Amino acid sequence: MIELVKYKDNMINEWDYFIDQSKNGTIFHYRDFLSYHIDREFIDSSVIFKKRGETIAVFPSAIKNELNKKILFSHPGASFGGVVMKKTISLGDILEILNSIENYALEKGAEELTIIPTPLIYNKNNDESLLYALKWRNYLEKEQYYSSIIPINNNLEKQCQLICKNNGRSFDYYDKIIQNNNLKICWSNKFEDFYPILEKDKQKYSSKPTHSINELVKLKKLFPKKIKLLSVYKGTQTIGGSVIFITNSKTAVIFYNSINYDYADLQIATIQIIELIKWAHLDNIKYLDFGVSHKAETATPLAPKMSLIKFKENFNSFGTMRFVYNKKLDVK
Q1: CA angle 51-19-320, nearest 5°?
Q2: Domain that holds residue 272
Q3: 332 lies in some domain
Q4: Are residue 125 and residue 153 in the same domain, yes or no?
Q5: Taken in order 195, 197, 203, 204, is the CA torsion positive or negative?
Q6: What does each C-alpha distance from 280 to 71, 151, 219, 226 come to in angstroms?
Q7: Total domain count, the chain
Q8: Contact 47/145 with Cβ under 8 angstroms?
Q9: What is the pLDDT of residues 216-225, one digit of tens each?
Q10: Which of 21, 54, 105, 209 could form a disulfide with 72 if both were Cys (CB 3.0 to 4.6 A apart)?
């Protein structure tokens, strides 16, 4: 018998320790990440699942009101949520957990369940049991997103040579740009210098950054070793930057990669990614998630943005899927 335990604030250490030990936990599942939001508030409804006293799964979730409906959502405050599970768990236990979650959602007065599970690339042992269980229990794929993944090769020089070839450049082309223009590339905490560039970049596509400047600064304080800003300087001026989230021991997300387009001819967007690949190689990161590429600003927001996907493919990325599952509950 699996016991459902409602999460309480005094359980934070137990929760975060489990995330570190789990098969599919990431930075997005830590309690501090789930509660960092400044301008957004959620009614937390997270639960822990125990079997014979041992934690076997956690479910970060919150109640979300949408179109006069209550939805139990996992999770509205993170890129993904879903059931985070211990490294060895049976399909039977996963099915029982989903059944328990549905009953819990009904108790909370929810009419629907929305679950965004951790993408498979973050899974430590490539287990697809949860996806099967969701389909078996009649969860529908509400949304599908195409995300580009850059694998980090053991031979860094060969990988960089291939990137240059893909872009039609000589091997030393980008190094010469850096040297000839006296560019400085380094890790920085100056989010306030990078953020205006990010905002202007997003405005080109009628969108806004996911995080406010205050939220980014707060996240950096909460996760000083897991959230990094790579900045590019020309003299004292910031002309580009990439924000990266180290998600778990084998993956990291390039959450933002933006440049000052007055300096677009310096190929900064490409240089930043090459520098992140070099960093990932040194830090034993296996995959860089370059994020989704869709036409969010159009009438078909889930349509693939081919120009952006092609740019990412020049770094030898491959595609993986992010799913959003939804189930209408049998409310009596």
Answers
A1: 110
A2: 148-321
A3: no
A4: no
A5: negative
A6: 38, 10, 21, 13
A7: 2
A8: no
A9: 999 999 999 9
A10: 105
pTM of structure: 0.93
Residue 60 lies in a domain: yes
166 within some domain: yes
Confidence of residue 118 (pLDDT cuts 50, 70, 90): very high
Start-to-end CA span in the chain (Å): 26
In a domain, residue 331? The reply is no
| CATH number where 310 lies | 3.40.630.30
Neighbours of 329 (CB within 10 A): 15
pLDDT in tens, 75-113: 888 899 999 999 999 999 999 999 999 999 999 999 999
Q: Which residues of 205-218 are buried (b: 16+ CB within 10 A; e: fewer)?
A: eeeebebeeebbbb
C-alpha–C-alpha distance, residues 150 and 286, integer Å? 9
Asked if 92 and 125 sit in the same domain, the reply is yes
End-of-domain residue from the set 89, 110, 138: 138
Cα(212)–Cα(38) distance, rounded to whole angstroms? 9
192 and 118 within one domain = no
In degrees rounded to 5, what are phi and psi of residue 20? -65, -35
pLDDT in tens, 140-172: 999 999 999 999 999 999 999 999 999 999 989
Sequence-separated (6 or more) residues with CB below 8 Å from residue 34: 28, 44, 46, 60, 75, 77, 78
Last residue of a domain, one of 87, 119, 138: 138
List Cβ neighbours of 202 (8 Å cut-off, separation of 6 or more): 208, 209, 258
In a shared domain, residues 193 and 235: yes
DSSP-assigned letters across all residues of 259-321: E-GGGGGGTHHHHHHHHHHHHHHHTT--EEEEEE-B-TTSSSTTSB-HHHHHHHHTTT-EEEE
Helix (H, G, I), strand (E, B) or coil at 193: helix
